[in-house]
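Appendix B. Extra example for self-study. Work through it before the problem class; the solution is given directly after the inputs so you can check yourself.
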Amino acid sequence: MYQFNFQPVFGNLDLLLYGAWLTVRLSLMAMVLGLVVSVLGAVAKTSGIRPLRWLTDVYVEVIRNTPFLVQIFFIFFGLPAAGISMSPNTAALVALVVNVGAYGTEIIRAGIESIPRGQIEAGRALGLSPVQIFRHVVMVPALRNIYPSLTSQFIYLMLTSSVVSIISANDLASAGADLNARTFASFEIYLVLTILYFLLALGFSTLFGAIRRVFFTYPASR
Amino acid sequence: MKLNRRIFTALAAGALAMGLALPASAADLDAIKNAGTVRVGMLVDFPPFGIQDASGKPDGYDADVAKALGEFLGVQAQIVPVTGPNRIPYLLSGQVDVLVASLGITEERAEKVDFSKPYAGISIAVYGDSGLEIAAPEALAGQSLAVARASTQDTGVSAVAPQGTDIRRFDDDASAVQALMSGQVRLIGLSNVVFSQVSTVAGDRFDKKFDLSSQVQGIAVAPGSDALLDQVNAFVDQAKSDGTLDQIHQKWLGEPLPDFVKNAQ
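Solution. Structure tokens for the complete assembly:
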């Protein structure tokens, strides 16, 4: 009979909590930078400039049709051959941003394309500047439309970040693996890890809900 | 990896206990000479020491040593494949006369079998960029070093590395080696066996910095086979001095027999 022993977990809870903090930090940075990449990608894709559109197409298709595992290996182990060498934690962040940027580009492009042309023309008729039109008439309504897809992509990003330990980057999963290597309480450790990841996902989900209420509700219903 | 090793250790311990229950049957040198064959137990799943060649025949460092032992005794070496857990029971039950099975010399095992002088060894060491001056663990501070998580080298490095050593833990030796080759780390904790494979790819880009631990392996005979053990020891001495072991070691591990094996008693 298997004897449960949670002592190794609770005795080292500080290690796991620190790992959880690293995962939160890594994910948050990847989300913010990934959002920037996504918006730029979506703008490039919907712009009339052809070479820019082709370039974005190649980026999106390559990333969306290859495994994340291969992408992160390529960035960490492959790029040094081209003289680009990053620390494991930086490489993990870059890989996550590049990955989520491709999915985000498609999501936001869909949002932008959901804005009827007439709405943009209405903005022009009101005498708004192109920047004002882009911000208030296109981007905010677009984000409002695709907000659920984008945030679930972000939560998926946080869960995906659990594989970054394969390039020896530090996060919650690597903290668990290190603890497991020392104590062999695999089941207990991964059970607690599962709960922590679930709580993190729940936390992000709550955060996204709050952001939505503040920034993306219709002015009339505020 | 560590778990596998534990299972392996548990199995080996079980096998030892079984071996204890069996009556040890000593091998008789005259019987071997009369039969014209010596039955040698060896592993076939432990590259590069014991492997199977393309036609399924046992090959590797141990196979070459077994053949040389047969020649020394003036008989044919008949190789019997054994596994890690069952190799000692095979010997003690008289199904093989000797083990050339990468059997690490430990005190526990020495109570069950009689070991010859060491004929091979595995060492764990820190390797790194040839240009880097690292002679002792103290010099590791500020350096990045890759190891396979929870491996013997992880334990070894973690025990001696000073504060400020950037130990990067990867899932296996292959990823750790990849990190070294791509320049993401400048040092690595590795066994000489794996390092010999790295050297075949990387040439002299990397060299050994300092040893962490080593384990020597002996040829084993059943207790009471003193005449045979004398002959095996004579064989090991001769093979060390006439370069036979150097040659075999060069063939399979890319360097002559290491000094820690030559000098060990």
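Self-check: Chain B has a mean pLDDT of 87. If your reasoning did not lead you there, revisit section 3.
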